[in-house]
Amino acid sequence: MNVYDGQRIAAMLTARGYESTEQVADADIIILNTCAVRAKATDKVFSALGRIRAEKKPDALFGIVGCVARESGADAFRRVPELNFVLGPQSYHKLPAILENPETKLLNIDLGGLEKFDELPQMEKSPVIAYIPIQEGCNHCCTYCIVPYTRGRELSRPFNDVMRDTEHAANTGAVEICFLGQNVNGYKYTDADGTVYRLSDLIAATAKLDAVKRIRFTSSYPTEMTDDLIDMFRTEPKLLPFLNLPIQSGSPDVLTRMNRPYSLNLYIDIVDKLKHARPDIQISSDFIVGFPGETDADFEQTMKIAQRVKYINSYSFKYSPRPHTAAALMPNQIPESVKSARLAKLDAYLNELQRDFNLSCVGKTMPCLYEGPDKTGRHLVYRTPYMQPCIVDAKSDNAPIMAEIEITDANKASLRGKLK
Fold it and tell me: Structure pTM?
């Protein structure tokens, strides 16, 4: 979501005559686009702000946008008096006001609607992978999550608006479309005629665009994985055989305290349905360890669900108390040393699963999407249908955007391959 917002903000500034620079000291305006999902992310924001104010030109405008802006509000000006603007995640389109009145301080952290999608300009050229938000906010209110506070209640964008952005991306260079939402598979829009559109309808319409070769979506909520969406994995070959389906914990007691009202049986049933619909599908997940009250037995249940599903790629984190969340006030907060030990154990196993899957790909040929040269400039980086980076020894001159690549080697982090 932040990648998308950053691209649209950059497009707005470019339309006003600005050019990007990598050097803080050269910039006339500096915008830090922020995430508040974990405390560490917020801490990094204010650490970065300290470095920026020391490096920037005296008259350069600078400020923060996004979830940390919403979380901190006016307190951000107290902590960093030099800030010119603090704009929440639904207020990016207010930036022209600070450009036109640079002497003012601009604070706007209101939870509006979907106005920013109409106000911010389209990019003239789309990246190969286009991120298309289809909703804002979330109604699930997990007790650990700050999203309902920073981004508000769930709002689905009009179907035609989403398809307008998708078609524009396809017409200007996008090959892969990734639909975004805090609860992306909960997308539901009813038009003036009473027609109801779901995520499956967006996928079906997007698949008809010739320029689009790959479709995916993130991030999913288990109970929103409806049969019509599961069936898309069976019927639509452009939909990648890969899904992030966060479970967070394998303990029913912890899931209850997290306010994630699904059973492990339901979750496993969804995974089985997905595998029946698309036998080659692979699942990734998100995990939180050390949630308040989590016992050793609770944690072992998390290990067991990882062993049961065999996730090929996962994101795991220590529980981080966030303001405005119920979990931050819960008793039996877990000591950092315990959280760290549990995370290390879970990560070690998840890394083993990822390495095993990567090794199982050796000898296979996969259709892959070109992302660009690697950091050395000596190799090409492609992305497999399972979102693994694949390093190819070839020159970037005339590199095909889509290519059949034979996987020749693998480790935990990446694959190596050769163009067929």
Answer: 0.94
